[in-house]
Amino acid sequence: MKILIPVDGSTNAQRAVDYVIGSVAALKEPPQLLLLNVQWNVAAGNVKLFIDQQTIDNYYREQGMAALQAARAALDAVALPYQYHISVGTPAEAIVQYAGEQGVDQIVMGRQGQGGLQALLLGSVVNKVLHLANCPVVLIK
Question: Which of 17, 44, 54, 133 could make an S-S bridge to 71, C-beta 3.0–4.6 Å?
Fold first, then answer.
């Protein structure tokens, strides 16, 4: 079984990781775990006129690794193997696209991420994933 866990560094995302860790014992064989962090595209408009692509890529990598740190530490602590990926784009669409590309069986995610005002303006990432995903989505409270 392939399980995708979108991670944004929030407490709710960490709860999803903890849920998967606690559920592994109930599975017949260890799942293949995929962690995904999606960075919003900051290189819009004229940004690239002032900042080179390498600096932008380094920023995405830094921010993504910071968001993944707690999830990776939790999985390392219980010796569960995983792969991680940092993507750039709109979170819901990037999550669903990555799930499709990787052929995941299930997406496990926190019921809300770091949203705030962005969630009010752009809509809930969770709602969009629920509507766009072609596989089961488990929401952790």
Answer: 17
